Queue: 2 jobs
Job 1
Amino acid sequence: MSEAAILVSGLQKEFLLSHSGVGSLKTLALWWKRRQLEHLQVLRGLDFVVTQGQCMAVVGRNGAGKSTLLSLLARVYKPTSGTVEVKGRLAPLLELGAGFHPDLTGLENILFNGMILGLTRKEAMARTDAIVEFAELAHHIDSPVRTYSSGMLARLGFSVAIHVDAEVLIVDEVLAVGDFAFEQKCYKHIESFKASGGTILFVSHNMEAVRRVADRVVWLKDGQIEMDGEPDAVIRAYESG
Amino acid sequence: MRADLKELWRFRELLWAMVERELRIRYKNSFLGFFWSLLTPLMTVVVMTLVFKVFLKNDTPNYSAYVLAAYLPFMFFNLALMDSAQSVIVALPVIKKVYFPREILPLASILANFVHYLLALCVFFCYLFVVWAASAFQQAPFTWRIAFLPVLLGVSLALTLGMAFIISALNVFYEDVKYIIGVLLYLAFFLTPIMYFSENVYYAMKGWGNLWLYYAYHLNPVAELATTYKKTLVQPGKIDVAGKLVDPVPQNWALFLVTLLTSIGILVFGYWLFNRMKWRFVERP
């Protein structure tokens, strides 16, 4: 058995849901006593291990905790209890082009985004050509990204994320933005990423896509793992109820 | 806190890139660009000099240089805090999607403002030089005390950073904070010896017969910094207090030491508070 790339054990996440929406000192003062804080248990103890080179899909209904799980893996949230461990460099694609600044040019944003994802300036510089080429944006790369269409932004974001030499990719339903040709290109890249030993964890509602790339599926239901196994079996169970 | 600092060090390149980005964005769509940040203090000093030297007949020699010496650091403090107050809340959509040490956000906006401040200081020294040249190189514009400037800059930076950590973190949860800070900074401008001199405070208090209020006044780190900047950057001379030219009160290093310790204390506390709160930014109710 190959080594573990993602280790999750006893993972719980709880959010405080406020109905008064304390966002100012006034509401804090007025609602001091009556402040209702609802504890929302989103993940109720997850345990799983993703081995290197595996491509795992997470399926489940809205509110099952899929995005929360990905955010925890991307270190955006801190777990309430339990641990998350990712070995190697992680590229989270929770939102393509998160951190792009509209007034900066495509090229400046590439450098900046690359560094957010953990590259050094030198490494980011060395990759700009490849990134621009993959995103097919050679003509627009010196214009500010506020002039880009959403498809162009998505292409640029995806292109940066896959060029940071990540060992683990975390993808949250973001591939549905480019046109058909670009989508195919993305899938092709994901397959070659898998073939070269990269680990992928992704969330999708598109069962066709899940069947196509995943070799393991986890079904999340109410913050717990309902089923974990072969794609066909899990998808069949998930779709029938 | 040690682990947090180590993590911050790992992301230092991102911090530099962020500072560079802030500097680049600020003037990207404006014609005069960087000169805006020099124009404002220069115009302010022209107006202040007009008001105090001409209208109010203040006879202090080198009045404009004195004002600039305290106004530039105050403006750095003011602008940097107003900028950084918004730094985290503006970046919420980003930090909900990617990880990097959150303290980079206020740090970057403070450091970008600090770069502006340093450039403004260069303009200040040009001004001193011009005045010196105009007086046919008679009296040197400043003394050996200028060597103390790096320490002053360090204390200014520490104080501003500490305040920025506190304000930017609190402002995520209570957006009133930035308005409160706006009001406090406006009041601080008058309670800081910028347009007037610490000597004004000194002789007014002496007239009352007790100096404790003079010391209390300088417990405010911003006021003590302004006083020390004036005494460090400009050749001390006679000062006009209520129509009479008096000798300057010598620099009180004990008071400065208090300010230095206060600033370091605020920095450590601010960083601690920020780190305590930073994981809840993305989960704010």
Job 2
Amino acid sequence: MRMDAAAHDPVVQMLGISVDFPGTRALDGVDLTLYPGEVHALMGENGAGKSTIVKALTGAYRVSAGEIRINGSPVSFTGTAGAEAEGIAAAFQEVDLCGNLSIGENVMLGREVRGRWGISWAATHRRASEILAELGLADLDPRAPLGALAPAIQQLVAIARAMVVHPKVLVLDEPTSSLEPVEVERLFRVIRRLRDQGVAILFVSHFLEQVFAISDRVTVLRDGRSQGVYPTRDLDRTELISLMMGQDIATLRTIGSQRRAHRVDPRGAPLFRAQGVGRRGEIEPTDLDLHRGEVVGLGGLRGSGRSELALLVAGVMRRDSGSMSVAGKQVGAAGPGAGTRSRVAFASEDRRDGGVIGELSLQDNLILALQAQRGWARPISRDERDAVVEHFMAAFNITAPSPATPVRYLSGGNQQKVLLARWLATRPRVMVLDEPTRGVDMASKVEIQARVAEMAMEGVAVLFISSELEEVVRLSDRIVVLKDRRKIGEVSNGPGVTVDTIIEMIAADNELDD
Amino acid sequence: MSTVTSFDNRPTSVEPKREGGPARWLKAHLGLLPTFAALLIFLAMIVYGEIAYGRILQASTVSNLLINNAHLVILAVGLTFVILTGGIDLSVGAVIAFSSVAGVLLTNAGWNPWFVIVLMVLIGSLFGLISGVLIQFFDVQPFIATLAMMFLARGLASMLSTTPERLADESPMRGLATQFKLVDGPRVNDLVITPGVIIAVVVVLVAVFLLHRTRFGRTVYAIGGSEQSSTLMGLPVVSTKLWVYVISGTLAGVAAVVYTARLGSAQNITGIGWELDAIAATVIGGTLLMGGAGFVLGSVVGALVLGLMNVLITRDGGIRPETTTIITGGILLVFVLLQRAVASRRRE
């Protein structure tokens, strides 16, 4: 079924591509060759140059050296329209569609079918449903509003939009970062279908397993340079990781063994105790105990109530049943302020909207919670601030031009580290971390995991949420499993517990339900 | 409802069940709800007026409603474009003042009246263009840019004259207010129309075509939905936003012509607060102030609701005219709350 890539002539050849930004060279002599009917994965950490090469290929960036050939003939793009004319289409990480318009309109926006009386809506919607059907999405009504769809389906609609022009090359930039496994599978079916139609697909992703599941060949980038091209089936996971990040892999292993060594069964009264805490429509009443120095992971699919439980525990969301106590003292039901007072800290899942404040400087972001804890009447002195900031920048290895840099100019990984540091500065007793490693590069991920482990060793009780079950299993002492907005069980972590254990728990519960 | 199934080789059982009938239609067209509500209020006002005061549903009243509010309808259409993109244009009332005072002065100075009419419209376009350039290329907030234009236009109008400038009765511009009897009713109950009303109707029809049948119009909606997405989708965001303000300004110029023709005079204080009336009409008609959702025809209904309200208050006689603004405020509030409700339903 899979076409033999080498038998065809390449559709895209990028030869010795360099892209310069003021002061830096983002891409340095990278080669990338795409064949029709292949899925080519582009791997690398954040900042490795993946987005840059994607933008060079889609005409958003101008290349400063090197040559792009389409079907053998050299081209030079002056904008995205130029690349589109050459048959290169792209769907990006964030779903860039308009929620106020219909599905069909989003697919066809700017390419509506026109008749004598302007746009012919019948023909436009017909064309849209043809394209949706080609992708196996015939169940979508093109006249329905896009905003009502789940983000995952919107992602597929974005791909449908890219397919309107029948491109030779489809670039998918981190298409799976917000998808659940089932949805990823649906996306993969679409990708395979397009591949079999002879489209060359450039698949950019962080997720190793997905790259192994879908791609035929892999190009690995590091620091703006190509680390080589490999047939996926000949590539070993460890090898790929070390290509991407170099030596950090050893660190990853140590965290796991450290946690394993540290793992003890909790003794004595829990530091944090929630009894029957719930909220109608969000999560059913749940019991949860957190001990000092313990990492408790929340396992479950996205939408299983993980974030909701976190919000309740942190006091951000008002509970309508149950009670919570920290070190034996009751916690009021009102607002994040109550949580902060009892030294329960919460790092939100949504870095941009619920976490760091992009316009504020790194240092101001870092001391925000500390200042809030103290109250506005007792400002933190400049010396103290500098000391705190210096300490955490060093401890978390935050790389930034200066402490005064606005946070939005930092990479995702660094932003996340600032967010963690902000809460650690308040010396919390309970730390709730909702997806602290989502969308950050490998190196930052490893560092964040190491910090979480360290935090626990210093006696903080950590509630840890991640979509990556591997991470949950690696870090947690206990794992609380959620499903369909209720707690279905709890496992004490140990050598026998793997990702599969959790998945089986979730699956087994399903059978009982039916 | 899927029109094409030939490509779909999966078993039909996979297809999710769809709600049928009105429930599904309503769900897909939730955005129409505020506009329908505006229409409903309009009809309710007619019914109430007919019962309470009588002589509402008669040709002369309808004619007067249209003739007296043609300029407001035109303004509301212009603002609909702007508001759909998520912007605002506060300058239109002042632009009318400047354009009409300049027009009357030039006509009275003996300039070719047709040329003057074109000039009046172009004055509007120019102000719109300046607003658009400020917003698009100098990154000024629409509120501030058009506020500046508002002060500028009002000031220029006052520089020209601070007293009412009468238009000579024989001037061809007044011809735009000539009343043509369409239906010769009993006594004074005639269905009358003026070129001004026809201009308003043409403006509305062209706007409907532009917004719903051209890529330009769809780009307007897309920008209102998400400007960033629109840019990334390769839509001509910059030129569209520029055009939107040019359209709003141009229609302010057109409204100036229609209003001046009807009144036969112009003054520097004309049109104070009209931009707000037009915004109110647009919002009552169901256009979201955040942009991305709404209809031109809704704005027309909104303008007529405001116009009819004045008629009813005049008819009543007992209500003090000052109350008008209170009632306008009340209606506006109800509609904004309705929109919030719809918006939150949508997010589910």
